[in-house]
Amino acid sequence: MRAVSAVVLGALLAPQDTHVHVTTPLVTNDMIEKDYGPAEPVELMHIAYNGNDYERKNVLTRGVLDVLVPGRYMSLREGAAEVMIVPHGPGAYNGMAQMAGLDVDMAGIVRVRPEVDDTPCHRVGPGTCDNPRLPLLPGTQGQPTLPRVTITAYRVTDRGTGMDRGRSGGRALSDTGLDAAAADGKPVRAVGQFRGANLCRDLPESTRRAGADWVLLTSEGPVWVTGRRPEGKGFRLDPAYRADVSRWLEVGGRVEAAGEARYLKASSITMIPRPKETEDNPCPP
Q1: DSSP H or E stretch at residue 173
Q2: Residue 188 and residue 113 share a domain
Q3: Does the bond joining 285 to the residue before it have cis omega, within 30 degrees of 0?
Q4: Any idea of the CA torsion for 156, 277, 195, 233, to the nearest 10 degrees?
């Protein structure tokens, strides 16, 4: 196992490292424990659905890190559970943004967003009187679409599952095309947008082979994914949940043809950030 690299949040992360450990010097464990107690392990789903129970608690949790509001906030997600991640200190966002798509361990302070925007203590800040060391939170009135529960992260560690780095080798489906991949039967890597159980009606329902099959919209067109559920280390997507179609996956497997339909028999599934050169394709109304 490679040594874990320790860097300041906001510093450049070495792209060749698979295991990355980022911290912030603005707080120490002693400072955090004095204000909020020792960090305790809590599953992300409990934090997301019962935020008030963990208000101002110092927690250790895990999930898939992703960009929520570019330049400002991240998100941490496990299955359908999602919380907003508030970077601690200037420049902290940049360090975490480079870990987007990775399965991470995180230490931070849980807070539920107030109804109106936080204001600095006695107007001098940087935080509120209750949380003088922590960044201000946006209110739910002004930004109602953001997750209500937040974690102000002071330590983030790549678990080394390689969800964004070190992906499986092999040919890209975008290089071979569906028909060529089906003809030679060799493994390919397909990158695409999750479309659930054909929620966007990309394919004729009559071409579904099994009830558990789901659709991946690739640059080469939509394909049925068979053999594996849309889940992996640190994530689990719901084929019946329309909001999950915003997620992007890399699926390794072999393409099969049956008439006009194409099927991808999956051997591996990884959640990834949306590729920079692509755009989300919303389901038609």
Answers
A1: helix 173-176
A2: no
A3: no
A4: -30
Q: Tell me 205's DSSP state.
A: G
CA distance 149 to 82: 8
Between the alpha carbon of residue 233 and those of residues 59, 66, 84, 160, 237, the distances in Å are 21, 15, 20, 11, 11
Distance CA 185, CA 206 (A): 24
Structural domain for 249, as ranges: 171-272
Q: Which residue, among 129, 133, 137, 76, has the nearest Cα to 107 in the 3D structure?
A: 76
Per-residue 3-state assignment (H helix, E strand, C coil) for 29-75: HHHHHHHHCCCEECCHHHHHHCHHHHCCCEEEEEEEEEEEECCCEEE
DSSP of 211-247, one letter per residue? TT-EEEEETTEEEEEESS-SEETTEE--TT-GGGGG-
Q: Please tell me the predicted confidence (pLDDT) of residue 8.
A: 33
CA distance 150 to 86: 7
Structure tokens at 212: 């558990």
Residue-wise pLDDT for 25-79, tens only, equals: 445 556 777 888 888 899 999 999 999 999 999 999 998 888 899 889 999 988 7
Least confidently predicted of 68-82, 187-201, 207-221: 68-82
Closest CA relative to residue 8, chosen from 217, 156, 160: 156
- Report the CATH number at residue 81: 2.40.50.140
Domain shared by 119 and 213, yes or no: no
CA-to-CA separations, 283 to 26, 230, 231, 241, 242, in angstroms, rounded: 43, 18, 21, 12, 9
